[in-house]
């Protein structure tokens, strides 16, 4: 494949965000009691990668009319990728992702099907319906759930129950919804009622609030490490929202920071089960921000 065509497909896939899918899947797996070395985790990681990538490609395919008018530089309206190829590859990836998650991965078919349904619903309705932001948040929640269900359905794992990761999954979903709501408020530039602004920012800080509530239930060393992660998360969100208030191109830059920050959200989640992995996730966030300079996150 020529380098220019490869880059076009990577742009369609928003490939710079893909590692956040890996951290989501790994967090859901560990919080459900799964062992890091279990081969089934690799199948779920591959399945999640295909579902994310397919969904992103279909997002552009569904938005082609809008992009032809407002974003002609995108790969499909720019003629670098054909619309038929985008539909074929995107749908093929969703089917392959579902199959790999359910069969070799052992995930719950119902949860995986719900995830695919949410992906498709968001791709088709995020432009005409503002409430689609909640569906986007649910996609990330279901990614956690899909990974956790594979642990629960694995007879050799003897997991204590996926409910362990449910609060963290919901906090991640709230973060995604809050991110989108804040970005849309700033992009419109119109005055927004104070309660909507407070609500959106509360959702954005939800993972940090949840982690703070868990500080006193852990030992001293783990509490100190968790406080460091909470501080890093709060600093990242605060800096991004301040940048966003500048408007214009700054909004896209701030959204990129917050998308890279998904890895930091997962760091807060897995800090309950693995501090080394939590800090590895935290280090990944600024690296993803650097990667976004090559392939845009939005």
Descriptive keywords:
298 residues; mainly alpha; 14 helices; 73% helix
First-residue to last-residue Cα separation: 24 Å
Assembly status: single chain
Helix content class: over 70%
Our Rg estimate from Cα atoms comes to: 19 Å
The share of residues in extended strands comes to under 5%
How many structural domains in the coordinates?
1
Number of strands: 0
> Which whole number gives the mean pLDDT?
89
Order of helices and strands: HHHHHHHHHHHHHH
Total helical segments = 14
Main beta-sheet annotation = none
Please write out the topology:
Blueprint: H1 3-12, H2 18-31, H3 40-62, H4 64-70, H5 83-102, H6 109-125, H7 132-152, H8 166-188, H9 194-204, H10 206-214, H11 220-244, H12 249-260, H13 262-270, H14 275-291
Helix pairs in contact: 2-3, 2-7, 2-13, 3-5, 3-6, 3-7, 5-6, 6-7, 7-8, 8-9, 8-12, 8-13, 10-11, 11-12, 11-13, 11-14, 13-14
Could you walk me through the main structural features you see in this protein, from its secondary elements to its overall organization?
- With 298 residues, this protein is an all-alpha fold.
- It has one domain (3-291).
- It has 14 helices and no strands.
- α2 runs parallel beside α13 (262-270), α5 packs antiparallel against α6 (109-125) and α13 packs antiparallel against α14.
- The longest helix is centred in the C-terminal third of the chain and has 25 residues, at 220-244.
- The radius of gyration is 19 Å and the shape is globular.
